[in-house]
Amino acid sequence: NIKILNYYKYGNSVYYTYTIKVQKRDLLQKYLEKNGISTLIYYPIPLHLQVAFNFLGYRKCDFPVAEKFSNEVLSLPLHPFVKIEEIKFICKKIKEFYEKD
To answer: How many whole angstroms separate alpha carbon 26 and alpha carbon 22?
Structure first.
């Protein structure tokens, strides 16, 4: 149900987001919100479908992987002050969400 996104082999992430790829993303996001966990979807519309890039002439289905990811990725809380206990709580709630199915 959850996939940790891999980073490039040649470099290091700056970890400005911690994004996971999940099934039932919108339901998970609502469940986490109900449990006091804020999440974000940074690109709900793939770049090629955003108004700013209309001049490029791309249409829906031109980049199916990007479109699929835009419906499946969710960014978890990440900042310098996140405590280990908070990370464990987030993990516990995600696990609970998928176990209840």
So the answer is: 9
Is residue 76 within 8 A of residue 38, CB to CB? The reply is: no
Q: Read off the pTM.
A: 0.87
Residue 21 has what DSSP assignment? E
pLDDT in tens, 61-74: 999 999 999 999 99
Classify the phi-psi angles of 36: left when phi > 0, otherwise alpha if psi is within -120 to 50, otherwise beta: left
Buried b / exposed e over 59-77, threshold 16 CB at 10 Å, is eeeebeeeeeebeebbbbb
CB atoms within 10 A of CB 19: 19
Residue with tokens 């987030």: 90
Sheet with strand 18-22: strands edge to edge: 2-4, 18-22, 73-76
Give the contacts of 13 (CB within 8 A, at least 6 positions apart): 7
